[in-house]
Amino acid sequence: MSARAASAITALAGHRAVLIPAASDFTPLVLIGGTGQWVDSWTTHISGFRDRPLLLYETAGQGKVAHDLSDMTLTRHTRDLQAVLAAAGWADRPVDLAGFSFGGRLAMAAAASGGLQVRRVVSTAVASRRTARGRFALRGCLASLRSGDMQGFGYQITLASYSSSFLAEHEARVPKWVDALARECTSEGVGAIIAETLATEEEEHPLHTERLASRIASAGAVEGGLIISGTEDAFSTLSSGADLARVAGWEHLPIEGAAHAVPLEKPRAWRDAVKGFLAKP
């Protein structure tokens, strides 16, 4: 983590956050991480978005800050996001949301809620319908977390999130990543996020991603949206990303060679895609 990022970590509405102001008229951008991430997971992206006001924050269940985990619905997370934006001074200002995996679903839920001024949304690695393989992977992760095995969870989520070529290239670094995850997150918090994720997989659930997409489309809730998919994603497949984009009436962009963790595996391509979409007239 850069010295600039470290000095910028603060607390907003009870959440660890990084708030980067910018002397520009660009719409502020909020980055929302995925399951098993924390605010430091995103600090490498700060320099790539330095031309606009930027907010990174940890949701309930991410990181080590103690939050009430009794309600982990996307509705609760949307309320939390509203409070964080208010604490940042952006309550009455339109924002762009870019979320990865769980964060991508939260971005969609926030846009669908009608309670925030959301201009554009970029959701990465979000499925319309997850495959059986993806559901089994999540259940395996949840089983490890419920037994308190953060190391086991770390290796499972790493295996499920990255392409074979990326893992082969970075094999020596993976144990350090797993150690960092076990140090920076809790089994209770991450487990609560995954349990709620599995609950929303039911097609009749009001917060199922296709239902969120339909609500956004019918309400004209945002100016535009983009679904980004890794071509090798087994959690949220390329075809499911395309399906979700069709339901929402959004654009769909594949990132070649990436698996689930597109922002970490292909960071420059991901940033270029986000910036290009947000800059469109």
TrEMBL record:
Residues 29-271 form the AB hydrolase-1 domain. It holds the Pfam family Abhydrolase_6. This is AB hydrolase-1 domain-containing protein.
